[in-house]
Every structure is written in structure tokens, then in C-alpha cells.
Amino acid sequence: MPVVSAAADVETTLGSEPTLHDALRAGLAQRSATEPKGRGRPRSAAAHEAILAATLDLLAAHGFDGLTIDAVAARARVGKATVYRRWASKFDLVVELLQTVASATPTPDTGDTREDLRQLVRNMVQGFSHEQYAQVLSGMASELSRNDTMAETFRTNFLQPRRQAAITILQRGIERGDLRPDTDVDVVLDCLVAPMYYRRMISGRPITPELGDALVDQVLRGVLASPS
Amino acid sequence: MPVVSAAADVETTLGSEPTLHDALRAGLAQRSATEPKGRGRPRSAAAHEAILAATLDLLAAHGFDGLTIDAVAARARVGKATVYRRWASKFDLVVELLQTVASATPTPDTGDTREDLRQLVRNMVQGFSHEQYAQVLSGMASELSRNDTMAETFRTNFLQPRRQAAITILQRGIERGDLRPDTDVDVVLDCLVAPMYYRRMISGRPITPELGDALVDQVLRGVLASPS
DNA sequence: CACATCCGAGACGGTTGCGTTTCGTATATA
DNA sequence: TATATACGAAACGCAACCGTCTCGGATGTG
Q: pTM of the prediction?
């Protein structure tokens, strides 16, 4: 393989959806405050970002198992030592990536429960329509069920904020009288959210905005011909 | 590592739930008809089964990526040549495993749609409560989103039969007048099935029989306070 | 019995990734 | 300016797996 185009095979997402890279840059800007200020040459922020960006691309392309430090360093045009100086393992590297890239989710509040849920689910649909976003999630799945620390990190940094937004909407709906007071929030949440993961990772069926609206409608009114 | 206990680290499921191994044996018995009957020593059926059984254990323990032919041969107490004589790659090996182990799902038919769905979902809950079953699914997730042929095989042999059973129940319910005629079968199906995959592979929340019943109830009647 | 094929075991060379180390150079502080 | 640290690049020895091949022996068919 020619050295020049070593990174070319990963460019499947070239120029289409930079979303996760944007989130990465934003996350880095936010936590840039912590500078220890030692004596010699300071660590390069550019290298730091390049490494995380390369990790993101390769994680999406090859999954967690397929991710290698060699490839990360090569893609980031950085020496391996520069990677190991900051992270002890690819595990630590991915953990920091997740923490940096996971952004807070806004909680819709339109006054109408159905509309709030629609916006929430549409946001998720949009996320899953970004190839890289969906690929990262799929690529992490095996690892989550095998590595408790990774699962914990993923759930705390990524899942929990999104989950909280949904819970807030549902509880508001209950208080407001839109939803039945005996609503099982956990189950409703699963019905709204799980199908998108399922389609992406298991069944392969399409994830469209129409699916999002259909899920909300389905969850709200059920399918009984004569509701009891 | 001592040679004697080379397989000891995989024995997490020891003595608890032999279900998938049973299904494997049953599947092998079913398709044992095809014997080409050549001239020299015939291939050992025992070795064949031992290899598939070892593949199953290691796939559950380490995922598709972590599966190696070396380990399969060692665990099956078989020479590597014996593996390669039958399968060209670990891909082919796993494909045959899936085809052999995927059993047909019975379609409940009690006359009551709610009860049919309950039984269907309870069956799935029971499946997911077998550690090995759930681990195999998780371990395949990354591969499914990256390998179209594997995804195709998995969906045809494993997913489709189960999906068909659920569709049958829902359509019977519609014809019978239990369910609304405009019921979106795909969406209902996702709401019933996806949460179990999601809990197992993503959120880590528990999968209990109560969850199964709650899902059916939720899907049937929705959560609106005043159904339109 | 002769022969073909398979058996388990393991050696083989090749490749990949690991984590460390060395090189000459660049960039900060004191 | 002297010193300390980081930089990119690449070589190192090590280990795991790959897929092939060889070995002596086992087990069928004709």
C-alpha cells in the first residue's frame, strides 16, 4: 500500500456530516482551562485534537476492537510516543473521546407533550442519520457488554443526559394531565428510543423522520381497537 | 498459561444454561442427512460438533472480533487443519453456527391477541435471560453493521423467523378486530422487541418477565390520559 | 490387504499490533 | 543561554494469529 494515501480508505464520510468532529472541537474548547504549566516545551493542543479526531474516524470505521494505536498515530500524523504520553491504552483514549464529544441534549418544552416527544425523537433520528454517529454506536456495542468500566463511562457521559431529557418531558406530561398518572416511564422511554438502536444495529431497517413520528403516536395511543 | 486449564477462563456459563448447545445438537441432528460418502476415512461428526460448540462458547465470551481459529481448535481439542478442512474462514464458521443453532420459533395462538403477544415476548425475555444467548447477540453487533454478508445471513436465519411469528399474531389481531385496522405493524413490532436488545446491549437495565408484560400493555393501550 | 482420506499435534514463515526506546529537532521556562 | 520537555519518525523485541504443511497414526472403501 502506498504511504501517501494511507488514510484514504477511511474517508467514507468525507465532506458530508462533520457533526461529531464539531462536537469534539467544542468539547475540547470547553475543557481547555486545565493547563498545568510545567517547565519544558508544553504539550501540543493540536496533536491532542488530531489524535482524538483520528480515534473518532477509526472507531467509526473499524469498531473498538479494530481500533489500533498504530493506526491512530499514523492518521493523526503523530508519533506513537505522543499518544502514549497522554493515554495509557486505547481504552483510556476512547473514554476521553466519549467524554469530550458527548454534548448536553436540549430538553424541548413547547407546552405540548406530543410535540415535545416528537422533537426529542426527531433529534435522535437526525443523530442516527449521521453515518459516523451510528457507526460509533454500533462499533462500541460488543465492548459495552464485555467491559464494565467502558459501559459505565458510556452510560454516564452519553446515555444518562439524553435519558434525563426524556424523563423530564414525560413527567411534565403526567403532571400536566396529558399522560396517565400510572405511566411506566422506563417502558415508554424504551419504546421510544430502543427501536432506533435496534434498526441500526440489528434489523437494518431504515430510520426516517416518519418513523420518529410513528413511534410517538404509537406510544401515546397504543393500538387497541377499543381502549379499556 | 498452563496447558491443562487452557479452557477454564471461558467456563462462565458452566452448568447453568445449556440451551444454545442443545439447539446446536438438535440442528446438527436435523441436517445430518447430507453425507457425500467418499472413499477414505470419513470426516468425524464428533469433531464437527466439537468445533461448532467451541465456536459458540468463544463467540459468546470474546465476540466475533475476538474469535480466533487457534482458540477454537484448542478448545475443541482438534487440529487446526481439521477446522480449515471444513471452513475457509471464521466467517464461514460462524455462519454455519448461526444457521445450525437458529431454531424455528413457535407462533402462539391462544385466541387472545394480548395473550399471544405476552407469550411471544416472554419467550424473548427467557432467551435474553440466558447469558450465552445474550452475549452472542452483543458480540455480533459490531460485525453486523460492518459486514453485509454476515448481516444478511443473521437476518435471514435468525431474525426473520421470529419476526414472522410476531407479524402473524398482529395480523390475526387486526382481522379479529382486537387491534385497530390502521396499526403500523413494523412500528409495533419494534416497540415490543427492540427494548430487550437495547437493554442488553446499550442501557444495561434489567430484562425481567415483568418488563415483557409491561411492554405488551404499553404497546396495546398507549399512555394518553384521554385517548382520541 | 492396498489405498485414500481424515485425525490431533504442532512447526513454519509471515503479518500485525503492542509498548518502549532512540534519534535529531522544536519550543517552552529560568 | 542553559535546561527541560515535547515533537515526529522509526526501529526494537515480543506476542498473537494467520494459513499452510508435515508427521505418525487411525479408519474408512474397494
A: 0.91
